[in-house]
Amino acid sequence: MGRFWKLILIPFVVMICIGAFYLQRAIANGQLPDYDWDTQSGDEQLLENVTIYGHPIDQTGAMKITKNDTIYQNELFFIERMNGLTTHPIIEDLIEDHRNFMRGKSKELNHFYEDEELLVSVEIESNRELNQVRETDFRLAVEVFRKDTKEVNSFSVNIPNEDVYDYISLLDIRVENGNLFVITNNDTMEPTSDHPSNETRVYRLNIAGEKLISEERLLSFVGYDNNHPNEVASLLGGAEEIYSNEYMAVSVREVNEEEVNKLIVVNLKTEEQFRVDLPKDTLSQEAWIDKQSNKLYFWKSTEGGLEITPYDLSKQAVQNTIEVKLPESTFTEPRSFDGKNPGSNAIQEPYRMNVIRIHEGNAYVLSGQNPDKTDVYLHVVRLSDGEVLYKGKLDNRQKDVGFEIYNMTIR
Fold this sequence. Notes:
Layout: H1 2-31, E1 35-42, E2 50-56, E3 63-65, E4 70-72, H2 78-83, H3 89-97, H4 99-102, E5 112-114, E6 118-128, E7 135-146, E8 151-158, E9 165-176, E10 179-189, E11 196-206, E12 211-222, E13 231-235, E14 237-238, E15 247-254, E16 260-267, E17 272-275, H5 280-283, E18 286-290, E19 295-301, E20 305-312, E21 317-318, E22 322-325, E23 351-359, E24 362-370, E25 376-382, E26 388-396, E27 403-410
Parallel strand pairs: 14-18
Antiparallel strand pairs: 1-26, 2-3, 2-27, 3-4, 5-6, 6-7, 7-8, 9-10, 10-11, 11-12, 13-15, 15-16, 16-17, 18-19, 19-20, 20-21, 20-22, 23-24, 24-25, 25-26
């Protein structure tokens, strides 16, 4: 009889615990600030795809702000909290639409490609040598979901000369003309040198044949010694989409140096490559690739806002600069409260913050002070002519609570 009553009580205890959690969450939610966009001009529909990530000052846990909601990690249920708030909305959509295919896969955007027919995932698999840091037996593990038949094809290919690599990381994947391009960063040790080297490589796989067709070394860097500078390569970001971009751009600079030495562009359709002929101060600016226009967009902060310089990749020519005027504010460089040099653990004064993302031919510019309480603005600028399509200010009804922003994504 006692066991029978215990079985009856278990559901009630569970219901009480769940109810207490949601009551506590509701109370906590009432104490946390809620953010709304105060539209000053333009089309509010452009906010539908915008998500801002950050954390409240003097609060633990992350937060994200969408057009209609402010979500705090601390108010999520336990299982939701384990997933966190940093998963890109495009990955969230893939999980929602293709749950079985996405199960157990990476949540990094650069591991996926999608178009109207295919959804492709690539992982780099390897074995770690016993009691050693280096890895061996590198393989490209590919899964292809065909949307018309709902079939999933899985295959893997061994990376040629894999025994010379200590580590391989995935930079991006693209699909063109039935071929899968996998761009990687390979660390190796030169047999005749004590200095490590680094390679940027492209592996081309035929999807239908499930085999490696070719590989190409785009760039190679030897670790610093008396004869070689220690150079590093970075793949330029593009529009926040997982469809193909005809061009890939790689910037090269010396370690511990800000200026970019060169910018190399590869046409994945023709497999031709060329260097972008621009001054170093332009090459060193932040830059994005836009698939729709096949352009590079360089941008830099100015006293009045931003200057965005388009570079047409198909014509290999720079175009007229676009000026974006931002609200006037007094900004300072990051420094500690005592006004001396910045410290890694020092609390910092507000400093100028610009976050730019490219989406469907528009530049989304988030600007203001970081950390800040009120003055955070969003401008959506059409890149073809510089017209401002939307201007708004992030409104916090609890003005005494500040927050710090560290990312923005466009769905």
